[in-house]
């Protein structure tokens, strides 16, 4: 399988740590995404590494028994270590400086601490088998203060640091889940909910396993993911992932079911808002996107994998260290190993090999695996790094080898412009609030321009200009595609930039499709604009009616005529500028020098002669003499005229 077939990969630079062995215990903290390697209970050293940490944190601790759990508070200010089922030890962390420890025992009698979670840099939650205890740590006093507690029988717990929600499993079947939400010193109890277990014969005791539950934020919403293994009956359809939406307010609701159509051992990750399901038996993974249209049965939406199952891209473990011989080749990594441990959202750890990877989605291979261009666009527009892939899809669908039909191209353009318009509207609302023209409650945040916003300049630069320059593409198809894009922009009321109209006109002129150009202008398919009018003026030599079309357009625009003259002169369209100014009757008041300067810059002597003669005739008509007055500052142009054409070419005053 070529590299272009794998749509999942492990990150290039994993976090490397000392492999787990009898002397070295490895712990992972989901909140800080840190790996702790604890040697001999910390006596011979603790090394802490995270994905973004340039320098690992190293320190020693006194060996006070086996470490059950170890985590830093957010910002690495306080270290918490659990060694017994009753207490947690704390230490204010100052690198290279040993600090005395202080201890907190759980308040509930006869309770055992299952674990703890930091919810801020000074707030911590103990989860015991009899409830939950929320403390504030006072580092200066080296003590803790109980803020709130709640008694409930707990089988196991799960923490989602991104949303600061702890989920407790309760009851005998373990399938009643009680969420708690933490924020700035407060603990809120959210409504509990039940996870529906699959039907099973009475003889088998089913209960909800912690292994089959995950919590993750998908598209900004918190979901509880339940991996439901169906019993292997003849009518079994395989396992499925059930997504329960857990809102801040209101009841938890079953929303989506992801159909896996297979059974066995699975693991879940969430990457770029996609649910990734790894299947150990086949050593493949599939991805689901809950934003794509699924089958709705009135209460839940059923989804199938977006793409065929594929393995994660093969990964080579680099040979590191001074002992590595230069010719030693990298070792292939065993993917889908039973030693892998998966954490949310996108982390895979191999403790036996000493690696922590982030799982990543590769978008380019998906382009060829998803033939339906409309669905492909829906998928790509939701991804973080999508812009260049989207533009490459647009180029590809216009290319000779992979050309799409016009309805498909129109669908793609409409999807892009829908997203573009959404951003423009949000930006406009924000600007109105900023300027004090409207009020917003709550205050509007400035809209973030994501990569899904593909604007006209992106399309022009990366797709359309190269497409129109391709000589092998039939010109009718080129015009049809350009007009389709303009139609799509007009449909969502996005003002079309003049350079797109210019592209249409240049294509029409290139292929002498003047009748079509005339119709487009007559029926206002191409919107009036100053640059467009100037372009038409410059086309007069190819298509004489263009002059009148442009004058009509300028009159409709009622634009400042001086500006139009300036634009034409800057494009060296000196005659067109002169004809335009004569057309509106302003030729008696214009500066001769400005036009002569522009004519001289073109290095076209005959053009200079024509312009010079025009102004001589104007002088004769207005003042009775063809000569320029000193105030017109045209001496250098008179000298240039004499030098090129001789004194005799100067116009003589006519006498009556």
UniProtKB/TrEMBL annotation:
GO annotation, biological process: autophagy; regulation of autophagy
Keywords on record: Autophagy, Endosome, Lysosome, Membrane
GO cellular component, one term: Mon1-Ccz1 complex
Stretches assigned to the Mic1 domain: 383-630
Keyword Membrane among record annotations: yes
InterPro entries in the cross-refs: RMC1, RMC1_C, RMC1_N, WD40_repeat_dom_sf
Main location: membrane
Regulator of MON1-CCZ1 complex N-terminal domain sequence ranges: 26-144
Pfam families the record matches: RMC1_C (PF07035), RMC1_N (PF21029)
Keyword hit for Calcium: no
Alphabetical list of SUPFAM superfamilies matching this protein: WD40 repeat-like
Described purpose of this protein according to its UniProt entry: Component of the CCZ1-MON1 RAB7A guanine exchange factor (GEF). Acts as a positive regulator of CCZ1-MON1A/B function necessary for endosomal/autophagic flux and efficient RAB7A localization.
Similarity-based family: Belongs to the RMC1 family.
Protein's recorded name: Regulator of MON1-CCZ1 complex
The species this protein was found in: Jaculus jaculus
